[in-house]
Amino acid sequence: MSSPAAPGFIRYLAAKKGLDDRSLNRQVWDHLVRAVRDRPDSAPLRVLEVGCGIGTMIERLLDRGLLTRAAYTGVDVEPEFIRAAAQRLHGYAAGRQVPLTVEAGGSMLFATPAQDVRITLEAADLFDFLDREPKKAAWDLLVAHAVLDLIDLPTALPRLLSRLVPGGLFYFTLNFDGATILEPPIDPDLDALIEALYHRTMDTRRSQGRPSGSSRTGRRLFGRLQEAGARLIAAGSSDWVVFPGPDSYPGDEAYFLHHIIDTIGQALHGHPELAGRSLPAWIAQRHRQVEARKLIYIAHQLDFLGYIEEKEL
Fold first, then answer.
1. How far is the C-alpha of 19 from the C-alpha of 49, rounded, in Å?
2. Which of 123, 128, 178 is nearest to 149 (CA)?
3. At CB < 8 A and 24+ separation, what contacts does 91-98 make?
């Protein structure tokens, strides 16, 4: 697979912003809005987003008015993503003619008559970040957007949830759950084999010597959250559905599709089970389907909202 820090990957993250916007489960989002609105604490909402990427989720939280008084911390392992997120936030504020003040230490203050949000972005490995933070550090809302299917749930989830205050909320979105659909078919048997092998690469992926993700993260989160002592408020599908409209694909989503196809090709390059099968020809035909505005892409995903119970003394 291409390096996540490559410029093409940054463009991919930007290209899917609109797709993510329309894919997020509305019921789960509405429950989040009510839970934040009804919280009894009048102090600023402390938000931690892990794997914040180029900052599209903080833009979404600001745009949709979820954050009024808040302290948001975004962490991502890629410094290039953090730099891109800072640049996007400056552009976001300028486009809305809202002052964005950079404070000592690099935090940014986003202030309007309706919002007072302090934003801190940090390039750090998730586990290093958690190890470095004081044990008493805690957040009211933990966000993980399209990231939990890239890490080892049994290792990471309990550590993440332990940093929430009692009653603290978690919002875990776009968790992949075992279906990659490309239409129209090329060769049904080959299509099915490529999908199965591609998913297997997710199940066997390792990062820094550790297991890194699963093709069935969505369904497994139900059990993993229960094991970690979390309570679910809402869950629902957040499938990506990309198809050409009357004129073309929305926004930059043709590029998004080309990136997905290349990702599959790179993941399966030289795979022994595809020996004698023309993967390059299959990849090339999928690219041509995009150019001809014929490719339809669906990925099954799930969103979750829940909280950590207050422990009895």
1. 20
2. 178
3. 92/59, 92/62
Give the position of tokens 């998004």. Answer: 256
Using DSSP's 3-state secondary structure scheme, residue 202 falls into helix
pLDDT 10s digits, 110-131: 988 889 999 999 999 998 998 8
| Residues 278-310 pLDDT 10s | 999 999 999 999 999 999 999 999 999 999 986
Dihedral sign of CA atoms 188, 189, 195, 198 in order? negative
Residue 311 CA: distances (Å) to CA of 34, 35, 215 = 23, 19, 33
Half-sphere exposure (Cβ direction) of 185: Cα atoms closer than 13 Å: 9
Report pLDDT for 84.
97
Q: Which of 301, 302, 296 is nearest to 191 (CA)?
A: 296
Give the max Cα distance, the chain: 64
pLDDT at 2 over 80: no
Which of 116, 128, 153 shows the shortest CA–CA distance to 75? Answer: 128
Mean pLDDT of all residues in 51-72: 96
Is residue 303 within 8 Å of 25, Cβ to Cβ?
A: yes
